[in-house]
Amino acid sequence: MAKQEFQTEVSQLLQLIVHSLYSHPEIFLRELISNSSDALDKLRHLTLVDDKYKSLVGNGIAPPRIDLELDEEKKTLTLSDTGIGMNEEDLISHLGTIARSGTRNFLAQLSGDARKDSNLIGQFGVGFYSVFMVADKVEVISRKAGEETSYKWTSDGKTGFDIEQVSGPDARNTAGTTVLIHFNEDGAQYANSWRLQETVKKYSNHIAFPIFLTYDKSEWNAEKKESIKTRVTEQVNAASAIWQRPKSELKDDDYKEFYKSLTGDPEDPLFWFHTRAEGTLEYTTLFFIPAKAPLDLYQAEYKGGIKLYVKRVFIMDDSRELLPQYLRFVRGVIDSEDLPLNVSREILQQNKVLTSIKSASVRKILSELKNIAENDQDKYKQFITEYNRPLKEGLYSDYLNRETLLDLVRFKSTKVEGLTSLADAKQRMQPEQKALYYITGGSESMLRNSPLLEIYKKKGIEVLILDDEIDEIVFSSVPTYGETDLKAVNKSTTGDDLKDDSTPEKAEELKPLLEKIKATLGEAVKEVRASSRLADSPSVIVSDEDEPSARMRQMMQAMGQKGIPELVPTLEINPDHEIIRKLLLDPTSSKVEDAAWLLFDQALLLEGVPLKDPATFVQRLNRILNQTI
Ligand code: ADP
Fold this sequence. Notes:
Layout: E1 2-5, H1 8-20, H2 27-49, H3 51-54, E2 66-71, E3 76-81, H4 88-96, H5 102-109, H6 114-124, E4 135-143, E5 150-155, E6 160-166, E7 176-183, H7 193-204, E8 211-221, E9 226-235, H8 252-263, E10 271-277, E11 283-289, E12 305-310, E13 313-316, H9 319-322, E14 331-336, H10 345-350, H11 352-375, H12 377-397, H13 402-408, E15 412-413, H14 422-427, E16 435-440, H15 444-448, H16 454-459, E17 463-466, H17 471-475, E18 480-481, E19 484-488, H18 503-521, E20 527-530, E21 539-542, H19 550-558, E22 570-573, H20 578-585, H21 591-606, H22 614-628
Parallel strand pairs: 2-8, 12-14, 16-17, 16-19, 20-22
Antiparallel strand pairs: 1-6, 2-3, 3-7, 4-5, 4-7, 5-6, 8-9, 10-11, 11-14, 12-13, 15-17, 18-19, 21-22
Helix pairs in contact: 2-7, 5-6, 11-12, 11-13, 12-13, 18-21, 21-22
Adenosine-5'-diphosphate (ADP) binds at residues 31, 35-36, 39, 81, 83-86, 94-95, 125-128, 177.
C-alpha cells in the first residue's frame, strides 16, 4: 500500500473545514450526493454520445442510481453511485490535491462564521473534504467507466492517504464510486435512518437520480407482539426534474428546496423565473437570482451555474455559453427539446437553437427584473445592492438590451439618498437642463467634493455620482438615455451650456492673466481658460471629450497598458474667485508664476493625480506661506 501525503493546501483546508464548520456537519451528505449526481450526469451523457460507452451499458455500466447503506451498529455509512468513477490517477489528483487556484481564495476568505463558510464550501468546490467533519476514516473504492480495475483510496483526513488496487469482493462489479464513511463522535448522529432521510430530502430531493436508503427498519409484528427489524431499501428523494412540472403544481418551498440542492447555497433565492416556451422552439427555463452575489463573481475562476439539459439529460454546465457573461450570477437550468443529445461545445457556440434560447432567456430575465423594479421596490433594492455592477458590464457588452439595462442600473446622486434610476433623475431635471450629468473617476467622497460640481450645486442641477471602477469605461460608451444626452462633467465642453452671459466680457479682462499662466505652465497644459463651472474653487482640470480622464489613465497604466500618451489637461480658472481677482491686479508680475503652478497642482491633487514633483510644490507653497505670515 502506497502512503501519499496531501498537497499542503489540502491539509490546510482540511484543518479549516473541520474546525470552522462544526455547526453544519450535515452538508457532507449534500456534497457527496452532488458529486455522485455529477458523476452520473457525466456517464449518462457519454453513453448517449459515445459508442464505446453505449456498448458497455448493462455490462460494466449499471443503471444510474445512488445508494446509501447504513450500519447503525458499526456506525458506518456507504454511499455508492453508478457514475463515471475514478481510476488511480483520478483518485490521486481529485482527492489528494487541489487543482483550482480558487481554493486559495477560499482559504483566505474563511471567516470562522459557520453559516458564511458553509456557503463558501459549495462555491469553491471543496465539497468532498467536508466528509472529514463527520468521519475519522473514509474509504473510496472506485472503478472508472471503460476500465476493469478498482482502486481504493483510504484516509483519516489528517496527513495523507493510501491508495491500492483491490480485487475480489471489495472490487466494484460496475463503473462507479463507493464512499465508505466511518463516523466519528460528531458524525455518530448520522448513523440514524430517520436523520439521513430528513437530510437527503432537505438538500437532495430534486437530484435527478433515485437515491435509495438501505437500513434496518423496526416494524411491529402483530403476531409475535414485538417490534422486529427488517433490512429494507427505500427510495428517499423525489428524483424528478422539477422544472418540467407545471407552475401551478409547484409551491414556493419546492423552488427554494430545488435551488438549494442545485447550488449548495443555504439561503433562499431572492426570486426565480420559470418559463415554458412552446412554438417553433420548445424549451423550459428555470432561473434563480441568489440572495447574495458570490464572493468570487469578479474572479476569472468563477464557475457560474446554468445547467443545460436536452430532454432532461444533462449536457453541460458552462454558464459562459448559456447566458452572457454579465448575467453569470444567474443560476438555474435550460432544458431544450430541440437540440441533439450529442451536441459538443464547439457546435453549441454556433447552434441557432441555442442562440435563440439564449437571447430569449436574456430578454426574459431582464424584463422580469424590470417588472420587479416597478412593482416591488424593496425586493429590487436587495437585488441591486448585489448586482448593480454586473448589469453595468452588460451596458458595455450587450448593445441590443442597452435601453432595458439603463432602466435597471442605479446610481448615487447629489440629489437623493441611496440610489436613483435614470428615469427618476430625468423626472427631476430642471427646465434649463439639457442633459443628465454624471461625474466619474474617484472615490465617492472625492467625487462629491470635486470643484467640478460647484456650478451644478449652485444651479440646483442633479449630478450622478459614478464611483464604481468600471463606470468610466462603461459610460463613455453610453451617450444617451432614451432621447436625453448623458454627459460627464469632467469633459471640457460639458457645462458650456450652463455658462452665464457675463463670461465673454470676463474673458477679455482675463486674457493677460491666462496668457501668463499658460506661458508659465508651458507644455504641462493644453490650454488655460476661464471656467464657467466653478463657484468656490479657484481652478480645475478637465479633459477633452474623446480623451481618457486622469483617473482612467491611471487605471490603464495599472492594467499594464503601454504607450498611453501623457496627460495634458486643460486648466480652467474661476474668474470670480478671490485669488484670481488678486492676481488680476498685476497679471504679468512674477508672483503669478508660483501661483500658476499651485493652481495647477491643486487641481491635479483634487482629481487624484499624484504630483510629479512634490518637492517643488512644497517649496512654492512655503514661499507663498512665508509672504503671508
Ligand atoms: P468538486 O465536486 O467541487 O469538484 P470535490 O472535492 O467534491 O470538488 O470533488 C473533487 C473531484 O473528485 C470532482 O470534481 C470529481 O472529479 C471527483 N469526484 C468526487 N466524487 C466523485 C464521484 N462520486 N464519482 C466520480 N468522481 C468524483
